[in-house]
Design a protein that fits this description.
There is one protein chain. The chain has 150 residues and is of the alpha+beta class. The protein has three helices and four strands; from the N terminus they run H-H-H-E-E-E-E. The radius of gyration is 32 Å and the shape is rod-shaped. The termini are far apart. The relative contact order is 0.14.
Length: 150
């Protein structure tokens, strides 16, 4: 028979709890991927939702210039002084070429530093029946898409 020592049974220290580092790393990585993926989808959805309004504003602006309705056209021009002079030059060009029609070909919208920007590519039908390319720089000002010189 064995006798128990007077100071108690000879126990080893308790084993250290196992750390599941692989599981922890996988959970952190999965969370990061999920957050980045959801953020990317959200930005894409916001940007895609701005393509049509930007194109419509550009089309309405050019249609107003063709109709020689400067009051309506200026509603689609930014408040910057460069934009007003650019509008005057564009109106002179439209009248000189005899532009009779327009159509939006492509719209590229970006969100940079919490500012919406768009480049709207259009084709203008000139008096001879030929088509000329036009690219309008757009920006959101006071919640509305407007033609802005950058």
């Amino acid at each position: 028979m064995t006798a128990t020592p007077p100071y108690g049974p000879p126990f080893l220290p308790p084993p250290r709890p196992r750390r599941r580092w692989g599981l922890i790393v996988a959970l952190v990585a999965g969370t990061l991927v999920l957050c980045c993926g959801c953020g990317g989808v959200a930005v894409f959805a916001l940007t895609a939702g701005q393509v049509k309004p930007a194109g419509n504003a550009a089309e309405a602006y050019v249609a107003a210039v063709i109709a020689q309705d400067d009051g309506r056209a200026l509603q689609y021009v930014c408040t910057a002084s460069d934009s007003k002079s650019s509008h005057d030059a564009f109106a002179t060009y439209v009248r000189g070429k005899g532009v009779s029609g327009e159509r939006v070909v492509n719209t590229k919208v970006t969100l940079w530093n919490l500012s919406w920007r768009a480049d709207v590519q259009m084709e203008l039908t000139v008096g001879t029946g030929a088509e000329e390319a036009l690219e309008l720089p757009m920006a959101k000002e006071d919640g509305k898409w407007k033609v802005c010189v950058r």
